Fold this protein.
Amino acid sequence: MNIDQIRQRFEPDSPRVLRVRQAAKNGIKALEQCRDYPRVHLEAMEKAEAEFNASGAELPDPLIPSPARLEYELKILDIWASAYLQLVSDSELRLIEEEHNRGAP
């Protein structure tokens, strides 16, 4: 595969990219239906804001890469990943409980 073929596969309007975007939107919609979503989302926002207040506000321009900016961005990514993982885990446990309560094997 040459560089032009690779570029075509990852163009913003390519079928592959559009499918991934749609799958991501569907996944977020499913998480938003969780009854714990408002609480988990608010907690993640508060943690991200606290992290920004602790270190993010003093970081160099986002366009200038630095080890400090990378560390900050990884912390923010970890906050949101943990929140969404909690929602996925809670949703999965609820599905298992519902199946068990219905008598499903």
Summary: The mean pLDDT is 85. Residues 1-33 form one domain. Helices lie at 3-9, 15-32, 37-54, 67-102.
